[in-house]
Structure formats: structure tokens, C-alpha cells
Amino acid sequence: MSQSLSCQIEVRGLLDPSWAQAFDGLTLDPSPDGTVLTCTVGDQAALHGVLALIRDSGVPIISITVRSPTQEA
Q1: Backbone angles phi and psi of 70, in degrees to 5
Q2: pLDDT in tens, 55-66
Q3: How far is residue 73 from each of residues 26, 37, 52, 69, measured CA to CA in Å?
Q4: Which domains does the chain have, with CATH numbers?
Q5: In 1-73, where does DSSP find H-type helix?
């Protein structure tokens, strides 16, 4: 049984809020080094899909934090 995953992906550069539509509902928040994209995905395969979308957009990834629901604070 798969669990949903809460993900925070920090990318370099400030992304315009219009990118939220391109990233299908991810929230975008500014960070000191760029933008943090936050989402919940159903499983690892869905996470890889999000990462592929970021890669295909040419946006450099700084960090990725993934938590299962049991790790939520």
C-alpha cells in the first residue's frame, strides 16, 4: 500500500506565480536562494513525474525534502 508524500523542492531563481499552473497545483513560495515548490504526491512515481517536469523546464534544483504523513510535524 502506498502512502502520499509531502514534498518541498527548492529551485534556483524566483518563479513567477503563473508557474503554479504549469506545475499543476504546486504552491510556490519565495526563499532566500530561489523558490520553494510544495506539493503532496501519491507515491514515488508521482514524485519522479514532478521532478521530470522541473527538469524539463530547465529550472535548477537546490534541494528536495520528502516526508511521509507519519513524519509531519
Answers
A1: -70, -15
A2: 998 999 999 999
A3: 20, 18, 28, 9
A4: 5-71 (3.30.70.100)
A5: 19-22, 44-57
Q: For CA atoms 63, 67, 72, 73, give the dihedral sign.
A: negative
Sequence letter at residue 59 = V
Cell 527538469 belongs to: 55
> 3 with 40: CB under 8 angstroms?
no
Give the torsion sign (CA, 51, 57, 58, 62).
negative
Extended strands (E) in 1-73: 5-12, 27-31, 34-41, 61-67
Structure pTM? 0.82
